[in-house]
Amino acid sequence: MLLPVLRRLAEMLFVMLGISVVVFGIFFATPGADPAARIAGRNATPQVLAQVRHSFGFDQPLPVQYAKMMDKLFIKRDLTSFVNRGQKVIPAVIEAAPVTLSLVLGAAVIWVVFGILVGVAAAATRGSLLDRGLMFLSLVGVSMPVFWVGSVANLLTQSRWHNSFLFHWVPGLGYTPLTQDPWMWFKGLVIPWITLAILYIGLYGRVLRANLVEAYQEDYIRTARAKGLSEARIMFRHALRTSLITFVSMFGLDFGALVGGGALLTEVVFNLPGVGRLTYEALQTLDLPFIMATVMYSSVFVVFANAVVDIAYAWLDPRVRNAS
Amino acid sequence: MTPPPLLRIETLSKNFRLGSRFRQGGVQILQALKNVSLDVYPGEVLGLVGESGCGKSTLGRCILRLYEIDSGRILFKNRDISRVGQRALRPLRAEMQMVFQDPYASLNPRRRIGDLIAEPLRVHGTLNEAGVQARLLELMELVNLAPDHLRRYPHEFSGGQRQRIGIARGLALSPSLIVADEPVSALDVSVQAQIINLFMDLQEKFGLTYVFIAHDLSVVRQIATRTAVMYLGGIVELGETDAVLHRPAHPYTAALISAVPELTLDEAKPRIMPQGEPPSPINPPPGCRFHTRCPFAQERCRAEIPALAPGADGRAVACHFPLA
Amino acid sequence: MPEPASASGAAPRAEGPWAEAFRKLRRDRTAMGAVLVLCLIVLACCAAPLYARYVSHTDPFQSNPAGQITIHGQSVDIMQTDSAGLGLGVNPIGPTWHGQYFLGADGQGRDVAARILYGGRNSLIIAFFSTIVTLVLAALVGTVAGFAGGWTDIILARLLDVLWAFPVYLLAISLSIVIISSGLQIGPINIPSNSLLIPIAIIGIVYVPYVARPIRGQVLSLSRSDFVLAARCLGVPGFRILSKDILPNVAPTLIVFAPLMMALNMLTESALSFLSIGVQPPAASWGTIIQDGEGLLYTQPMVAVAPGLAIVITVLALNFLGDGVRDALDPRAKLRVRKD
Amino acid sequence: MARADNHIGGTLRLTAASAAGTLDPQINYTSQFWSLLVLTNDGLLTFKRTSGPDSNTLVPDLAVAIPQPQDGGKTYTFTLRKGIKFSNGQDVTPDDVVASFQRLFKVSSPNAGSWYNVIVGADACLQTPASCTLAGGVVANDSANTVTFHLTQPDPEFLYKLATPFGDVLPPDTPAHDLGTTAAAATGPYMITSYDPQKQLVMQRNPYFKAWSQDAQPPGYVDKIVYNFGAKPEDEVTAVENGDADWMFDAPPPDRLAEMASKYPKQIHINQMLAIYYAAMNVNLPPFNNKDARLAVNYAFNRRAAVNIYGGPRLAVPSCQILPPNFPGYEPYCPYTKTPGTTWTAPDMNKAMQYMKASGQAGQKVTVITDDQNVNPALGTYLVSVLNQLGFKATLKIISGDIEFTYIQNTNNHVQISITDWYQDYPAASDFINVLLSCGSFHPGSDASVNISGFCDKNIDAQIHQALVTAVSDPKAANKQWAQLDREITDQAPWVSMFTPKQLNFVSSRVGNFTFSDQFHLLFSQVWVQ
User: Fold this and answer.
1) What is the pLDDT of residue C339?
2) Which of A84, A134, A180, D208 could pair with D85 as two cysteines, CB 3.0-4.6 Å apart?
């Protein structure tokens, strides 16, 4: 059991090394990204600039700077921002994580529930008008840019219909921590949850339907039907159970990517101070320490989610389990 | 006096590496062939039989250098070809060819039949396009296929027809040696006979030499002049087909024969059933590899590996206590 | 005695797998509907100059924040100063439902309807060519890795892993910010920062792992297949095996990917442009028009809503076409392009 | 003015999209945080804390009085007030002043080399900041409770430079590195008690503060100031409308202005800014090394369009020149309009096309650089369209706001034309003309070359030096010279001046006693919330 864990760790380290080198390289390839000039201020003389460059170590060779940054990020854990000097990077990421987690967890609940509903309803009535309607809507959901859905949702809930009975409860954009006011937390996140979930409801509904329809063609379902089991029982006890395997592995990967910062656009549109927005802002201000930290964080999540999915897959799928 | 062998195999060994250093269980060595020696004489049909997994297909592929061998030598027309590079091997391809077991898998589904059969002619490039077309028609006639089939795709043919296509392709370069790797095992019994007849006709017409691999003794009986029986990566018995089938010297050969009703009907022979499952080639038993399943096994069999020793009527048997 | 060609008995003329797939696709009414919609959109976008010249009579790239137009014989400011309150803020004219400023003006006083047609061109061009880039690169990397094996495979596969663990938008955004601020200098070729090649290359590259990984797997199993073994046995050189036996079998997968990738690329392009790091002004794409409209959401929501609808319709049609192509070519393929 | 005691107390809630970096008063160079730092820290002098033109007058702060220049303007002696304490309980002493100016160099203050290099000993400090003593430059006399500054040459603006937060006096034990997110010990009525740049900054009353001058550092009304970061401007507007915040830092999005103006006209305050929005043309690179090409752009540029983009005529005033209205040395001048004179009326396309033809630059490729903040991309888009109308092949390049300002300065980036702005540091014409357009502020190949046009005219440079010298003794005469320089440089057209902006302050309904200083903007200490 130890070896696969070690292997995963090695893989994670490799991926993180690769990404950090890429990010570091990209950053120093950008003209004007020189942090010394920004730190020195808008009217600094070249002399002052040179001093700032020296005191921050920007005049050292890049590999040395890279090593120092990694040392500060992972070992000393006191890396600070280039833009808001003195601001520690790690606490900021740790503070942003619950926001992203709140957003993604809530959206995940919605998309799992509705994804299953859509998939099951469509598969159970396959070929019918309901099936076609649901599949069409799912594809529409998959085809909408999430930031646009968010903008339109803001237009409706914040402006056009804000004073109507429908949306008067929607608070202004932003995030209220769960610990501070659970009800506000909930109210503020409902619209972002739905916005983020729409795409995945469509995606999961379609995949689940396809799997269910395929499962219906398997021998064991035919046998079950021949035994006279009810349609509902066949659906829930047999077909759904096997179809959920794909569903679970998809879920793991998507969840990992979203928690890792993939919900960036939703966070930007709804002004949620999560990891995605933190990354986006860091990228906009070219704040290398922040970019480094958030990107490292997100790659950990993606690799971690992959590992969990692999293990869950082996555990859920008897074929894989028996083979080993 | 015997003519010089067309093909001589000397103490050939082949291992497969399974798994990876980085995965659970680490690397495992599968000994597919161990110290196999064999001569094939011009114009003969050498049957190669054994259970699946005994290494007969591996041997066939090693002969054609589709697999790299670990030790030993392969001499074709007295020339050592066991270490020749792929490029230098190309002229030799014209002289030795293979017919594959699965006529479905061995034909690229996206290419027309004419294209598939002409491939070796074009690659070896001795004929111009008109010559290629003429040769194609000739080959189609040889394997009893209509010329208009050349424009069709593999999926439009039955299994038997596809095997004829495979044979035509193997014959295209007029080789002197053909390794037929279970060419009929995937076919219906009625079709099997037709294909075997085709093989025999072709041999008669062109004086071909076959190494004919089968897991079924009844097939070997129809076509092979000599038969080699393989068990767990080694040859256990080798001799004239009639002698091997009627007076098996190795308990394993006897066991194989017992499993075929039509061979046991004519003469009352002791029915020998091997005990248990074949052992894993990853972890072969010491001593005589058959001892774990042999009803006659004694202490010596567990300790000492029997050599393939020449016996009566030009036969060789690898057994401490041969039956005949 | 020749066997009767039983399987071929039904079809009098030999039909290859491509022809068969094409026939199936043509019978798929949804897919054909999607093709029709796409054709209409492409035609409309191609006709953008005609619309600008003969219908809207404006140059959609010329800012006009101090201009006027004539409606019902009256001269109206394109940018209208608020006359009711303190006279703060200047709002672009809303939809006139006339030829001119049919969907209203944007913050620069430009005709939104004409810009959507022009923007569609860029959105379509970027989505299309970045798909080509992805498929070509993925096919290259995937086949080389899968076919060559050994160290080449290990290095390429690890590289794909690294890219894969990088959330797509993060990678795309970091590349865009850098390249757009500097332009791209590759040897003697200098690509300016407003070139469409930049979003094309970025979007094309970030999705390579998602296509290259399955392609590599497919090539790996193909190169172990009997028919490749047979070809090697016949002495066919490696390159010829690759081009004649492996690539034609990978091609259907690539083609199935194509419309789905194009849909995805269109969404990615719009997202990058929305974040102002895709198509650079004054050029337009549907994403940049949404971004322009974001600042006018409260007063002129049409500026953001209309291009969004255009994206939804186009992407929807591409997805329907993608489904149709998959059913026709490779019904058992379980393709899923990741989105996040 | 008597203090309105019944308005004392409460919490003032401010909101902004983002924080403005370090709390170190000797490093931070943003107007956003200067408004806070003037409440916490004091220098020897400051600008009068009041509304209107009076807010540009110097008043003594930690010093008892504004000293008369001695030694031909090379020596200033300040006497310190007694009894002022830091928020850590220590007394403010002459030695603290010396230590603070040493620290200015030790922490590489942005303007150490450009503003304070006139102090004797500054050169050595700039060479090796760690061992900075300013020996002979800043001299403390504890018994007399005075500090004397010795300058290498007269500097008419030296006193202004002491009145900005860079000149704040800090305790001598303040670490000699950027304080970052921790605040220095305060002398003012408030002190910063917590700061998280992603979230919030909190200011509370300084327990050691005792009012010493209503003009320099009046005591505050509110008990607490909470500054929240991270909301988008749209949300800031909503928050102020709903009374969830009292003031927003960012400019309201243009599509909300009409709504704000019609529903909450009483909560809107519009204040003139001493600033200019302009497009800097690089006079050393084609096509704008050609004066005719620069003139063509100036005649063609429709300032009303730019004003409309910025938010309409109530929020910006068209401009053709360098200095903003109501600034020392300002005399209205506009040659680039239909009827040249003092004010801009309409673009003159005919003249523009004539100059364009004369320049022979039609068809030249031009890249307009702008940052991604507020209206700047829209202004850039408009400028591109004007250039294209003239016959250039113009494109726009939008660069992150954090790097644009340094990017356009560095000649290595070959920027042809860029959109930027300049807000005054102190009320002296040289802060525009000398800082932005003299040879001394042009450093090829450096990110720190604030003369973005690269404009260096020997004759004009000589006049600038003349004006600087005159200013030491006769500010009035100097302002005449600056006005003349303003016209001469405008005629050379290194810039396309667009407009001077006004600031729209949107406050909640409960905010009273709105006091807006030209120097430090809304004076939070003077605001009533109850």
Assistant:
1) 38
2) D208
- Which pLDDT score, from 0 to 100, does residue C3 have? 46
Q: Which residues of C touch B88 (CB under 8 A)?
A: none
pLDDT tens for each residue of A255-267: 888 887 778 889 9
- For B19, the token pair is 């798994």
Mutate to test the interface with D, among C78, C88, C296, C300 (most CBs of D within 10 A): C88
> Which tokens belong to A221?
């379902």
Distance from CA of A9 to the nearest CA of B (A): 12
| Fold of the domain spanning D275-503 | Dipeptide-binding Protein; domain 3 (3.10.105)
How far is Cα C288 from Cα C277, in angstroms, rounded to an integer? Answer: 9
Indicate whether C79 belongs to any domain: no
- Enumerate the residues of chain B whose CB falls inside 8 A of the CB of residue A2: none
**Tokens 């290359």, located at residue:** C201
Domain, as residue range, for C137: 120-282
Q: What pTM, to 2 d.p., does this model score?
A: 0.83
In this predicted model, what pLDDT tens digit does every residue of B144-200 receive, in sequence order? 888 888 888 888 888 889 899 999 998 888 899 999 988 888 888 888 889 999 999
Question: Alpha-carbon distance B322 to B316, whole Å?
Answer: 10
Q: Looking at chain C, which residue has its C-alpha nearest residue B146?
A: C2
Q: Does B160 touch chain C (CB under 8 A)?
A: yes
The pLDDT of residue D380 is 92
* Bond prior to A273 in cis (omega within 30° of 0): no
The answer to the question of residue C78 being in a domain is no
D447 in reach of chain A (CB within 8 A): yes
User: Which residue type is seen at D248?
Assistant: M
Nearest Cα neighbor of C254 from C90, C133, C161, C82 is C133
Q: Is C243 on the interface with B (CB under 8 A)?
A: no
Buried b (16+ CB within 10 A) or exposed e, D446-463: bbbbbbbbbbbbeebbeb
Q: What is the dihedral of CA B175, B176, B182, B184, to 10 degrees?
A: 70
CATH code for the domain defined by D5-222+507-526:
3.40.190.10
Pinpoint the residues of chain D covered by CATH 3.40.190.10.
Answer: 5-222+507-526
**Poorest-confidence range of A5-19, A149-163, D311-325?**
A5-19
Q: List strand residue ranges (DSSP E) for chain B, in order.
A: 7-18, 28-40, 45-49, 71-76, 79-80, 96-99, 177-181, 209-214, 226-231, 234-240, 309-310, 316-317
- CB contacts under 8 A, C 146-165 vs A, are 158-159, 161-162, 164-165
Q: What is the pLDDT of residues B123-144, one digit of tens each?
A: 887 788 888 999 999 999 988 8
| CA-closest candidate to residue D526, choices D83, D86, D35, D194 | D35
Residues in B touching A7 (Cβ below 8 Å): 22-23
What number does CATH give the domain B7-95+175-317? 3.40.50.300
Distances (CA, A) of B256 to B251, B263, D431: 9, 10, 104
Say if C234 is an interface residue toward chain D (CB within 8 Å).
no
* Residues 178 through 197 of chain B touching chain C, CB cutoff 8 Å: 191, 194
Mutation target for A interface from C178, C272, C273, C323: give the one with most A CBs within 10 A.
C178
User: Can you give the pLDDT at residue A146?
Assistant: 92
Tell me the two tokens of residue D443: 């450093």
Q: What is the DSSP string of B53-118?
A: TSSHHHHHHHHTTSS--SEEEEEETTEE-TT--HHHHHHHHTTEEEE-S-TTTTS-TTS-HHHHHH
Quote the number of domains for chain C: 1
Q: Residue A45 and residue A41: Cα distance in Å, rounded?
A: 9
Spatial contact of D62 and D92, defined as CB atoms under 8 Å apart: yes
pLDDT of the residue at A323:
38
Residue C274 contacts A, CB cutoff 8 Å? yes
Q: Where, residue-wise, is CATH 3.10.105.10 in chain D?
A: 275-503
In a domain, C160, yes or no: yes
